[in-house]
Write a structure and sequence with these properties.
Layout lengths: L1 E5 L4 H12 L3 E6 L6 H7 L3 E4 L12 E4 L8 H8 L4 E3 H10 L3 E6 L4 H14 L5 E3 L11 E2 L14 E5 L4 E3 L2 E4 L8 E4 L13 H14 L5 E5 L3 H8 L6 E4 L6 E4 L7 E6 L2 E7 L5 H15 L5 H8 L10 E6 L2 E6 L4 H15 L4 E5 L4 H4 L4 H7 L5 E5 L8 H4 L7 E4 L2 H10 L6 E5 L7 H13 L4
Parallel strand pairs: 1-2, 1-4, 2-3, 4-5, 6-9, 6-12, 7-9, 12-13, 13-14, 19-23, 20-21, 20-23, 21-22
Antiparallel strand pairs: 7-8, 10-11, 15-16, 16-17, 18-19
Length: about 475
């Protein structure tokens, strides 16, 4: 089948392109952001990419157009697709019908931790020899790719379906399909990691997101499993709406899955199942949020017959995910981290984990409020508290942010500064850095190449002068 993907260079749609090509389809695509690294990854697979959304990109007519959720009516390619009567489908629906239908789907949902938990789960299953397929909204360092077809159909010598791990996003599916993506996936194992308000461009309030999570719960069969954060009251409300599936809870101190003898920074801990020792994790990750993510992944893996001991041993070798507290550079004693945190809760937990690791060393936090929810100021009242663990805070106020960022940070006093230009921000941050400082850069986008510019400045300043 000839497939053309609109919006192919997004992480999710790029993953679909890779899966479609691996499944034997002829794949092409178009986007306004045809540049590395996604462009090079796709071109290496032999996928033809085109810049922009032109009607002629749909000539000759493909057998199917897969439409990304960033596209809407008025887009030239969308209008041409509709006028010519081409067959089209959303990315989640195509994935469900063509890849997931014959798999044991393990879906990871939640406001935070989806990418990391999905990566952990895929790595556990890989270590156990199950050859999972996966589609993850990031790049697990242990795999180096965000999507893989994995084993196909029934596993050899058994009636069990091959596992497929999917990062289950609550965002909408397409301009013609406003239900959450995860409603297409029909998981047999579902992790509900946490639930907070986000995606203000799609959901008017928390209750509307809870409804979508309730719909997800409705799709999990009675012989499936729900793995639920037992300390999240918003998820309690979701399950109170109805639950027809066995469930297991996880939490640091109590639940079906919990921990004991945990290091302060979360770098080591014992796993308890029903209060009994079930394995030990000793890894390079940090933060209590990652300990919770690990418990969820271990519980889900057990549902496909991977023992907790095997899962814990696998996580002890887990390398992590790109852009999740990833060390980008160490220059003249200064360590620069890249992190995807863009919600106050994620910002706070990431900073708390780093603080436990570095002790009294200075942490310089640099934040780009880039998500729609951040840009419109939904989280302005909680932003200051989320940044409390940093010694110095720099926030970039892009031209499309019209709320009072400096006012929102007033509680941080002289520790916080706001910049409206990337170059000015580079100057301000670099001028205050000292040996043994830790620079945590947080953004869910490219941040105007701030990471590269800061590292280049540090390397220039550290170079010996003639």
């Amino acid at each position: 089948m000839r497939i053309h993907i609109l919006g192919i260079c997004g992480t999710f749609m790029g993953g679909i392109a890779a899966l479609a090509e691996a499944a034997g389809h002829e794949v092409s695509g178009s986007d306004t952001n045809v540049y590395p690294p996604m462009s090079t990854q796709l071109e290496a697979l032999g996928i033809h990419l085109q810049q922009g959304y032109l009607a002629e990109h749909l000539e000759p007519a493909p057998d199917m157009v897969v439409v990304g959720n960033a596209l809407s009516r008025g887009n030239p390619a969308v209008e041409a697709m509709l006028e010519r009567g081409l067959s089209y489908v959303s990315g989640p629906q195509w994935l469900a019908e063509n890849i997931l239908a014959q798999r044991h789907v393990l879906a990871v949902a939640g406001t935070h931790g989806k990418t990391t938990t999905s990566s952990m789960l895929a790595w556990i299953l890989e270590t156990a020899g199950l050859q999972p397929g996966f589609l993850i909204g990031g790049v697990p360092l242990d795999f180096g790719i965000s999507a893989r077809l994995g084993g196909d159909g029934l596993t050899a010598g058994s009636r069990k379906r091959a596992p497929f791990v999917i990062e289950a996003d609550e965002y909408d599916s397409a301009f013609f399909d406003k239900g959450s993506k995860f409603l297409h996936y029909r998981p047999r194992t579902a992790i509900l990691n946490n639930l907070e308000y986000d995606h203000a461009d799609i959901f008017p309030d928390l209750a509307s997101i809870e409804t979508q999570f309730h719909y997800l719960v409705r799709t999990v069969p009675g012989n499936g499993l729900l793995v639920v954060n037992g300390s999240d009251q918003n998820l309690v409300r979701v399950l109170d709406k109805g639950c027809w599936t066995p469930r297991q809870s996880f939490a640091l101190e109590e639940g079906d899955w919990s921990v004991a003898r945990m290091a302060a920074d979360g770098s080591a801990f014992d796993v308890l199942h029903q209060g009994r020792p079930a394995g030990t994790v000793n890894w390079g990750l940090l933060g209590l949020h990652n300990v919770r993510n690990a418990l969820a992944a271990i519980a889900a893996a057990q549902h496909v017959s991977v023992s907790p001991e095997t899962a814990a041993a696998a996580l002890s070798r887990f390398q992590g995910v790109k852009r999740r507290l990833e060390i980008r550079a160490q220059v003249d004693g200064v360590t620069v981290y890249d992190d995807f945190a863009h919600h106050p809760t994620a910002i706070a937990t990431t900073l708390a984990g780093l603080r436990k690791r570095v002790g009294q060393a200075r942490i310089i936090a640099v934040l780009e409020p880039r998500s729609f929810t951040m840009k419109v100021g939904v989280h302005r009242d909680t932003l200051s508290a989320a940044l409390q663990d940093a010694d110095r805070i720099f926030v970039y106020q892009a031209p499309n942010i019209d709320w009072d960022v400096a006012g929102a940070l007033r509680g941080l006093g002289s520790r916080a500064s706001v910049s409206r230009e990337i170059e000015q921000l580079v100057d301000s941050v670099s001028s205050e850095l000292h040996r043994d400082d830790h620079v945590l850069i947080m953004s869910n986008g490219g941040f105007g190449d701030f990471h590269e510019k800061l590292i280049a400045r540090l390397e220039r300043d550290a170079a010996p002068r003639c």
